[in-house]
Amino acid sequence: MKYRVREIIIVEGRYDKNAVSQVIDGTIIETGGFGIFRDKERAAWLRRLAAERGVVILTDGDGAGFVIRGRLKGILNGVQVKNAYIPDVYGKEKRKSSPSKEGKLGVEGMKPDAIVDALRKSGVSLTGTDKARNMEEITKTDFYELGLSGKPDSGELRQRLIRRLDLPERLNANGLLQTVNVLYGRDEFYELMSSITSETIPPTNSTAWGRE
User: Fold this and answer.
1) How far is CA 97 from CA 92, 94, 100, 105, 190, in A?
2) pLDDT tens digit sequence for 171-200
């Protein structure tokens, strides 16, 4: 059984995200360790998503995890933040050759019940679902049907959507999918895309290219 969480869940890396996604159906975003703090556009994108739903921070229980948690609170200033803390469990993740510096398991090493318990204690609302996905969610199939992926001009169409939503131009397709699922319901998003695709695109000024 998976639980649906409304808030944006922020974790450190992809292995943490994989562990959380086994029990949680929601929007889970990786910081890439300290990487997000060097990317002002990505930080602004995260603030925008967080402002829509609120945030729960779920980082490792070691020193680095707490530093990341503190810095996240700084860039999310003004946004409702909840904190989920995993218990101190000593050991080593299977994929690693040695334990962490402090010898504690990170989020990726937690059992599913421990992750659910940490989120529940943070104050988020956990709604049980029999299916992993909400039927009203915007999916990768929707992106394909709308021409946002898998088509020759998909990249340009995504850029038009990104400009309409005032998002970072480097946002990839998966990040864009996460974003629109936070900002829009499925029907509303289809209406938005209809308005975008019906726009008249100014012709390219051919004299601006290929001349010295």
Assistant:
1) 8, 8, 10, 13, 47
2) 888 889 988 988 888 999 999 999 998 876
> Which tokens go with 98?
């040695």
Nearest to 81 by CA among 58, 60, 118, 55: 55
pTM over 0.70: yes
The closest of 79, 88, 38, 25 to 57, measured between CA atoms, is 79
Quickly list H helices, the chain: 14-21, 40-53, 63-75, 112-122, 140-145, 154-164, 173-183, 186-197
Domain boundaries, the chain: 2-129, 140-197
Place of tokens 């937690």: 110
Contact 73, 81 (CB under 8 A): yes
The SS3 assignment for 67 reads: helix
Sign of CA pseudo-dihedral 65, 79, 127, 145: negative
Instruction: Read off the pLDDT band of 129 (50, 70, 90).
Output: low
24 bridge partner residues: 3
Residue 132: both structure tokens together: 């992993």
Assigned CATH topology for domain 2-129: Dna Topoisomerase Vi A Subunit; Chain: A, domain 2 (3.40.1360)
Distance CA 19, CA 11 (A): 10
